[in-house]
Fold this protein.
Amino acid sequence: MLNGLNLKFDPFPFLYTERLILRSITKNDASDLFLLRSDKKIMQFISRPIAVSLNDALDYINKIEQSLKENYGITWAISLKNNNALIGTIGFWRIESEHYRAEIGYMLSKDFHGTGVMNEAIRTVLDYGFNVMKLHSVEADVDPRNKSSIKLLEKNNFVREAYLKENYFFNGEFLDTLIFSLLVQNFKPS
């Protein structure tokens, strides 16, 4: 009988693709993370406050480290194999161990949009989630205006489950949310 996920992220699981290293995020990544989280174009569909100082990035890193310690979230820095700079992030958060489910989230530097980097990263992270963490399903909550993210999810066999009208209040307005899901049996490893 299943009793839920038994997660341990120590030691941190480094993941590798053809072009990328998915590694732990450290305080040394604060300036690169600040550049991402302070960029209005990158943050336009992420309903979180824009970073206004390096301290905002450090606070975010502390949250990532806390979720990792308590095994309810894991976030990887996306770096190129030939350059350790953080160019994006990807991870599982809001892990529901008793339901074998987690939500995936990601962001990427504008310099790498349209290069296939995020597709490479998401396939590797999903493989880890289903085959190592033993997730049964992965959820993605998306702003319906984020056509690139929707395309990425659909390319990786996520299915739209719901369209929630004005379910989220952020920056003085009610926003809609699309919910996508991928079940383990529909995951196609590369």
In short: The beta strands are 15-16, 20-24, 73-80, 83-96, 101-108, 137-142, 159-170, 173-183. The longest strand covers residues 83-96. The mean pLDDT is 95. Helices lie at 30-37, 40-43, 54-69, 117-131, 147-155.
